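Escalation from tier 1.

The customer reports that the assembly of two entities below gives different structure tokens on two consecutive runs. Tier 1 could not reproduce it. I'm attaching the input and our single run for tier 2 to review.
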Amino acid sequence: MNQIKLFKSYIPMTETAFYILLSLAEPRHGYGIIKHVETITNGRIRLGSGTVYGTLTKMQRDGLIIVYADEKRKKIYEITDTGRQVMQEEIARLKELHANAVNFEGEFYD
Amino acid sequence: MINVFKPFWSYDIAKTEKWLSEMAAQGWYFVEMNTATRQFFFEKEDPEDVTFRIQYDKNAELPAALENDGWHLVFRHRKWQVFRNDQPVHTIRTFPVRDGIIKRNSILMYVFGGIFLYHIFTFFIFLLINVLILTAGGGFHVEGSPFWVVTIAYWIVAWGLVPYSFIKLYRSLKRLKFGTRTNQTSEKSANTTGHTLTKWKFGWNYAPDKLEQWLMKMEKSGYNLMRINMFGLRFQFQEGTPKQISYCADYQNSHQPDYFAMHQQAGWRLMYSSEAFLSKWAIWAKAYQAGEAPPQLYSDNKHMRKHARRILITNLALFVPIIVIYIMLIRMNINMAQTYSFDMNWILVFLLCFVIVEYGILLIKSWLYYRRVKKRAD
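Tier 1 run:
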């Protein structure tokens, strides 16, 4: 898949995909991702393991993440350069969203 | 520099890696190989204990964690990558994964297995015909082949190389998979004092959501699922206490090596799994508190729909070609009966119609299931 197509298929990201990729700021195993997302969203998002498995499989196929094993042969996921670029693009989009939300939110409160 | 010929090096990758380490311990370090001629090339250096890992992956990037742990790429050709780590083996914390090799060798195993089955089948037909001829009082006449070499070479390949490859791949795959997955279904401690109940369920894989609901209802009314037989048809329950247990029947086209580990870590108990070609089902169970929403494998609508669509597409791909062929067979029968004016074989036509209707019902069931999931997800 070429870069432009890849960006188009991932941005805008679903909340699930965003939090999964965000939690790979450091390498984690599958269940570690679930726990981390639950913690940073204060328990709001409890990802199903099937959802995480499906998302990771797809991201690995598209080259956003890469995998290795620890000494117990447990799989650990790491973000790639491509994955970082996708994340930068998405975060820029979210920042714009956030800035506009802050700028105009007052209009909706009275 | 020396080179060593290793024709079947890719069948048992763990053994090949061990061999590379042993060579290094004697001072011969792997530098490159020729995948076409199956030759490994070694260079002389001071003997040392080093670790090798061979990976099969289209992705060329080496994870940073592996690089920090001392791994470096020695050789790369197409999807093959050979990594080396000079650290003492007990200090190595991270390793390249086997997924690519497991997938590649599984496909090879199926191909060799298929060829071998075909050979056995045709050979038995050949034997059967000969026996029939002999019992009918016939005789043999062996026609000399001008290319006996070709015939003999073919026999060696068909009856030697093909089964050898199949068995070798089967064994090494079993060892590789054994280390990476724990897909043993968890059986509850067999408390045989309670009253048991056996129920049979056919065709649940065309409406898995109905099966899930049924199992949850059984648990709520005090029938705890103990085991499901290997064909996924017989469900054995034990009369016990009412429980809140969520069930999920999951279908995958192929099981990645960490499929089972991930769900098990997330608290799911594997009640059943089938590893058949094109029918990888797993039934998962997880207890939850009263008042809580039953936990699901798929927490978002996108993956819920995707799962249902996968089941529908697989069933379409399986049944539509058969239905089309059977309809064509019926038409051919009618046409032939008309042109050559003989009696129709009504029994055959009836049987074909019966199968068409049967498969049609299964397809409609899968489609209804897909619609139910879509409706719930939207």
